[in-house]
Each structure stands twice: as C-alpha cells, then as structure tokens.
Design brief:
Topoisomerase I, Chain A, domain 4; alpha+beta; single chain; 6 strands; two-stranded antiparallel ribbon
Length: 185
C-alpha cells in the first residue's frame, strides 16, 4: 500500500514538472525555436490542429522561424492564427512559406519575462507540494484503516518529502537555466 502511494506520487510529480517545462518552452527568449508555435492551432479542413500538423517548421537562422504549409491555401489561416496569438510575431508570407523574424528583446521585456518564468516555476512548486499533501493524507488514512503500520507511514512520508525536495530542485534548475537564456543578449 505504502509503495503504491509512493509510486503514484512520483508519477504525478514527474507529470507536473514536465507540464511546467512545456509551459517554459512557449516563452519567447529572443531566439528562434519551433516550440514557440506549439500553442497555436489552425483550422485544417474544419479541424483545429496544432500548426506542426499542417506545416513544416524550421529554424534556418537564430532569429528566424520558417513555416512551410503543406498546402498553399493554408498560408492565410496560419498567418491569421500567428497574429492572433500573444507571441508578438509579425508573419511575412512569401510565396509558399511564412517567415517569422524574431525581434531582439529589450532589457525591460527581459525582466518581465523573468518574472513570468518565476511565476510559472512557483506554480510548478505549488503543484508538487499539493501532490505531497495528497500523498501524506493518503498515508494517514491508510494508517488509520490499519492498512499500513505507523513505521511504514513515517518511512514513506520521509520518502515523499525526499521526492518533493528532488522535484523542487529540478524546478529551481529549470528556472536558473531559463533565466540565463532570457537575460543572454
């Protein structure tokens, strides 16, 4: 029982950290990356699909993303959705491709992005701590129901705390890496 709770807790914490990582990938750092367009969906034959399922996305230069739709008729739709997104990119349609120049970030915008990243990381930490709380509640209930012993409860609670510390440290490392990437000129 205690090992089941520990396994589920670790699995949930991993998913939480991965979700935070995906959110961080969407933050524009002044460098071109195909992940910037991950949140954008386009109308492709009456289905809303991610942009990478309707076009090829490449990064030929550090400050340029090139989107090549599989069908030329998709260019206006993709352009419209990129403009509608809050990325602040201005698509340029040229023939069969769409160019997305990535403007350099000014110092003030960099500081704002760091604040956003810190908030995302803090949300991730809160999620991990909530998972810890849920695991501890399950352990208390299991002990009360005589499914595990008091020693097992304390031993497993320590392991849950170790997991929490490990994943909070991972989130701190992610914060440090992203902050360095944003502040790099």
């Amino acid at each position: 029982m205690a090992e089941d709770i520990l396994g589920q807790t670790e699995e949930r914490m991993i998913k939480s950290v991965e979700a935070t990582g995906r959110e961080l990938l969407r933050i524009r750092t002044g460098k071109a990356t195909p992940n910037l367009l991950d949140g954008i969906k386009v109308d492709y034959y009456t289905n809303m699909v991610p942009i990478n399922q309707a076009a090829t996305i490449s990064v030929p230069e550090p400050r340029l993303i090139v989107v090549q739709p599989w069908e030329k008729s998709m260019i206006p739709e993709i352009t419209k959705q990129i403009v509608k997104s809050d990325l602040g990119l201005n698509p340029i349609a040229e023939g069969n491709i769409i160019r997305l120049p990535i403007p350099p970030l000014n110092e003030e915008r960099r500081r704002d992005l760091v604040k956003i990243v810190k908030n995302l990381i803090e949300d991730g930490k809160i999620a991990v701590r909530n998972i810890r709380r849920d695991a501890n509640d399950l352990l208390k209930k299991a002990e009360k129901a005589k499914e595990i012993s008091e020693d097992d409860h304390h031993r497993t609670a320590e392991k849950v705390q170790d997991l929490t510390d490990k994943f909070v440290e991972k989130l701190d490392d992610m914060l440090q890496a992203k902050e360095q990437e944003i502040m790099e000129v």
